[in-house]
Amino acid sequence: MPRSTWLVEPLRGAHDREGFSCGDATLDRYLKEQASRDLRRGCATPFVLLPGANQNAILGYYTLSSYGIDAGELPPDVAGKLPRYPLIPATLLGRLAVDKRHQGEGIGEFLLMDALHRSLAQSFRIAAAAVVVEAIDDRAAQFYRHFGFTPFPSSGGRLFILTKTVNALFP
User: Fold this and answer.
1) Cα–Cα distances in Å, from 102 out to 43, 62, 64, 132?
2) Which of 30, 91, 147, 153 could cross-link 119 (Cys pair, CB 3.0–4.6 Å)?
3) Residue pair 119/93 in contact by the 8 Å Cβ criterion
């Protein structure tokens, strides 16, 4: 399937959520049962990757929302470079999943880069010093570390990347 036709857009009612399966029941259930509610309630914005325009099959998805990092949870060398606020504004990349029929095709990386690019663009409107992820397992944590995410000292499954670093990805 050519990347040139891939399209990322906010979740809509016409998208085929029932046909999606990433192999993780929690992530599948979220897309099928909770994602629309989170969107309506303003808790998270789910974005879906479609094979092309006017197609409704979901190849993968991710969610973005606002987040606050407790400054005391950051590594001291990072916290020392940020304002001394109790909460540091951030963007939460809450979930990211790829349909199991399309795993290994670069969709995870594509979705991550799209999420980081959207987060960066939004950070110019509403400040965010970092993007935070909650890796579902060690394999996911390794995926994020490969792209420059740093684990929080108190939790190896929760990682962050500074917006300054994201900015360097998109010259």
Assistant:
1) 28, 15, 22, 25
2) 91
3) yes
- The answer to whether the CB of 4 falls within 8 A of the CB of 40 is no
User: Whose CA is closest to 64, among 85, 42, 37, 82?
Assistant: 42
Q: Please give the structure tokens belonging to residue 32.
A: 């099928």
Q: 21 is in which domain, residue-wise?
A: 3-169
Q: Which tokens in the block code for residue 96?
A: 């990211």
Q: Are 24 and 31 in contact (CB under 8 A)?
A: no
In the sheet with 130-134, reading across from the earlier edge strand, the strands are: 7-10, 45-50, 60-70, 87-98, 130-134, 155-162, 150-152
DSSP structure string for 137-158: SHHHHHHHHHTT-EEETTEEEE
Query: What pTM was estimated for this model as a whole?
Result: 0.93
pLDDT in tens, 61-70: 999 999 999 9
- 10 Å CB burial of residue 33 (0-12, 13-18, 19+) is exposed
CATH code for position 121: 3.40.630.30
Token pair for residue 110?
């594509």
Residue 63 forms beta bridges with which residues? 46
Task: Report the number of distinct structural domains present in the chain.
Answer: 1
Whether the Cβ atoms of residue 136 and residue 27 lie closer than 8 Å to each other: yes
